[in-house]
Amino acid sequence: MARFVALYLFYIGIFTGMYLFFKEDLGFLKNLTAEVFSFSMSLLGVTNSVNENVLHFANGITAMKVVDECTGIYEVLVYSGCVLAYSTTYQKKLMGIAFGVPAILGINMVRLVSLGFVGLWFPEIFDYVHYYFWQVTLIIIIVLVVLIWIEKVVKR
């Protein structure tokens, strides 16, 4: 357990340093996330437009700005740190990254779309859902994705 914690902190330290170093180069992630978010909302019948990293809705809340925290990058780094720190083969770690990163990014998009609908239909609880419900839910989801990876890939 101590080895896992030490390795996890090591990887998170490296990821944090890399993220801070390349942060300006990763700005495209906000725009890409906003485009996918806009497309997803359009598929669900919500009229919107996107300008760089800001979605503008025809009714309800006027806009939602996609910032770094909205991209799912932090969740991906936390998950990847767990996978890399776990004691297993590199092949299984690679499978964990290949399975988990898209899963977490997909769940993040579900989070954004749900926040879009909360903002449109129940704007008075938007802040609660955004800052409390989804923060806790994302932590639980990361743990679940790690546990699924351990159960389905590592233990086989």
Total count of strands: 3
Can you tell me the overall shape?
Answer: elongated
* Widest sheet: strand ordering: 1-2-3
Order of helices and strands: HHEEEHHH
**Unreliably modeled segments:** none
Rounded Rg: 17 Å
Q: DSSP strand (E) fraction?
A: 5-15%
End-to-end gap: 21 Å
How is the main sheet built? 3 strands, antiparallel
Mean pLDDT: 94
Helix content: over 70%
Count of alpha/pi helices: 5
Q: Which structural class is indicated by helix and strand composition?
A: mainly alpha
Describe this structure in words.
By secondary structure, the chain is mostly helical. Helix content is 71%, strand content 7%. The protein has five helices and three strands. It has helices at residues 2-22, 28-43, 73-85, 90-121, 126-154; strands spanning 48-51, 54-57, 63-65. It has a three-stranded antiparallel sheet, covered by helices on one side. A hairpin with a 5-residue loop joins strand 2 (54-57) and strand 3. Helix 3 packs antiparallel against helix 4, helix 3 packs parallel to helix 5 (126-154) and helix 4 packs antiparallel against helix 5 (126-154). The radius of gyration is 17 Å and the shape is elongated. The two termini are 21 Å apart.
